[in-house]
Amino acid sequence: MATPRPTELPRSPVATVRYRVCHETVYDYAHPVTSARQLAHLQPRTTDWQSVFASTVRIDPTPGEQSEGLDYFGNRVLRFAIDGAHERLAVTASSELEVRPHTPTPRCSSPPWHSATRPPLDLMAPGALDIIQFQNGSPMAPALIEAGRYAARSFVGERPWLEAMLDLTCRIKSEFTYDPSATTVSTPVSDVLSRRRGVCQDFAHLMLSALRALRLPARYVSGYIRNDRPAGTSEALTGADASHAWVSAYCPGHGWVDFDPTNGKLADTEFITAAWGRDFSDVTPLRGVVLGEEGQSLEVRVTVRAL
Fold first, then answer.
1. What is the architecture, at CATH level 2, of domain 105-282?
2. Torsions phi, psi for 209 (to 5 deg)
3. Which residues on neighbouring strands pair with residue 40, listed in sequence order?
4. Which positions ≥6 away from 62 have C-beta within 8 Å?
5. Domain 17-98+285-306 carries which CATH code?
6. Is 186 exposed, middle or buried (0-12, 13-18, 19+ CB in 10 A)?
7. Residue 33 pairs with which residues in a beta bridge?
């Protein structure tokens, strides 16, 4: 039996939005670097709800080697190498794209939450292995027992999947404090759970850990949030002006639905998808190896504008 084809959920009544995104990364080295090898996830991916019209990456100094392709998860990836002394590396990614409404309305019907814990009957069906691999823990988002206990308050009885997912999303928003000084890129989920503080990456990893502990398939999504203020709103979403992270979870018969625990909401046209994977380590915007003496500073600037 094949995996059921996703059915059409009632979508939120929002308009399609066209965006221009600029992501600038600058490394200043304390001493000249003689060689660098880098891998970048900086170009948004094309999805059923997102069309990319143009995407370029400008690198200074100019690489001696450069190639583009897709990684294991289907994300766009850029690899480049710089051989020659340099004291600064600047990488600027510019994209223009369109995001269409794709999330369900919060009150739409969905099956009982525990139906999502069952593996697909046909492992050869399209998307079946994708579901199974995201049920399991990963290096930065392990399926911790204590995280599962935290989520269990939301997933009870025959509660509908969407209702339970939104409850967990909103609980993380209300019970955890957004604090950029509380964690680092390598802070484990157990520390985030005990301290109740962190940033979008931490909250996404926490939610992934909690869902996977209950055997619910979920993946890490890296991207951007609209950071201008639409008419009628008073403030930008938390996590704007930087890369953002949220969670996509699988519902049988409906497919993948995105949730943002940092802002306690469904992720729709305000969110631009760059890449997804098991956790942050799969979709790091820019990572690599440099040959040189210790010491560097990093500056990242992100601008997202609706056209």
1. Roll (3.10)
2. -60, -45
3. 78, 286
4. 82
5. 2.60.40.2250
6. exposed
7. 86
The H-or-E segment that residue 149 falls in is helix 145-152
Strands 177-178 and 197-198: parallel
**Residue 238, phi-psi category: left (phi > 0), alpha (psi -120 to 50), beta (remainder):** beta
Is there a common fold for 17-98+285-306 and 105-282?
Answer: no
Q: Prior bond to 61 cis, omega within 30? A: yes
E strand or H helix that includes residue 189: helix 189-195
Phi, psi of 14 (to 5 degrees): -120, 160
Structure tokens at 223: 């991207």
**Regarding beta strands 65-70 and 50-60, do their DSSP bridges make them parallel or antiparallel, or are they unpaired?**
unpaired
Q: How confident is the model at residue 289 (pLDDT cuts 50, 70, 90)?
A: very high
Dist. CA 223–CA 56, nearest whole Å? 16
40-99: per-residue pLDDT in tens? 999 999 999 999 999 999 999 999 999 999 999 999 999 999 999 999 999 999 999 999
Q: Where exactly are the structural domains of the chain?
A: 17-98+285-306, 105-282
| CA nearest to 23, candidates 96, 129, 83, 100 | 96
CB atoms within 10 A of CB 166: 20
Name the one residue in this structure whose structure tokens are 């990963």.
Answer: 138
Report yes or no: 149 and 190 within 8 Å, Cβ to Cβ: no
What pLDDT, on a 0 to 100 scale, did the predictor assign at position 237?
A: 64
Question: Which residue, 240, 255, 251, 236, is CA-closest to 301?
Answer: 240
168: Cβ–Cβ under 8 A, 6 or more apart, which residues? 151, 154, 155, 207, 210, 211, 261
Quote the tokens at residue 257: 């639905």
CB 216 within 8 A of CB 273: no
